[in-house]
Amino acid sequence: MKKNDCLNLTADNLGADLEGICRHEGLPVFVPGLLPGEETLVRIVKTEKRYAFGRMETPPAVPSPDRREPGCLAYPRCGGCSGRHMSYNATLSAKRQQVEDCLPSSAWKNLSATGTRHLCPARAARISPSSVFMPRGAIP
């Protein structure tokens, strides 16, 4: 795989910045805006030894049920909100999974991310450890 190759890829998972993670010959390819289960034509924009970055050339053939309209004219150019293309519940689920993936390797082995404070949809992409581990109404 090299720069400017066009590949038909399917996202398997989400990365730390809510980009789709696809695999091509065992190499992960990070594609912003792609959701798990979606398949599309991806142009490789940068390659490294162990991973690559791609860009969607066409919209997904079959959109994920979690896909929604971003609702912001500046998205994705501004880069401030990485999850505007996802539903609110999908964003919460992805962020909760990120926290749970970090727990076994930390000192917080007995904790689990059981819930989140529900924020307004405009702040759906923002979640902090205090919103995961503090009960409602508690002051962090």
Description:
The radius of gyration is 17 Å and the shape is globular. The longest helix has 15 residues, at about 90-100. With about 140 residues, the chain is α+β, with helices and mostly antiparallel strands. It folds into two domains: about 1-85, Nucleic acid-binding proteins (OB fold (Dihydrolipoamide Acetyltransferase, E2P)); about 90-135, no CATH class. The protein has two helices and five strands; from the N terminus they run βββββαα.
The assigned CATH architecture of the largest domain is Beta Barrel
What fold name stands as the CATH topology of the largest domain? OB fold (Dihydrolipoamide Acetyltransferase, E2P)
Order of strands across the widest beta sheet?
1-2-3-5-4
Q: What's the mean pLDDT score?
A: 79
Q: How many domains is the backbone divided into?
A: 2
Largest sheet: 5 strands, mixed, barrel
Low-pLDDT runs of 5+ residues are 127-140
Radius of gyration: 17 Å
Distance between the termini: 47 Å
Residues in helices, as a percent range: 10-25%
Fourth-level CATH superfamily of the largest domain: Nucleic acid-binding proteins
Q: How would you classify the quaternary structure?
A: single chain
Question: Could you state the order of secondary-structure elements as H and E?
Answer: EEEEEHH
CATH class of the largest domain: Mainly Beta
Number of strands: 5
Structural class of the secondary structure composition? alpha+beta
* Residues in β-strands, percent: 15-25%
Task: Output the number of helix runs.
Answer: 2
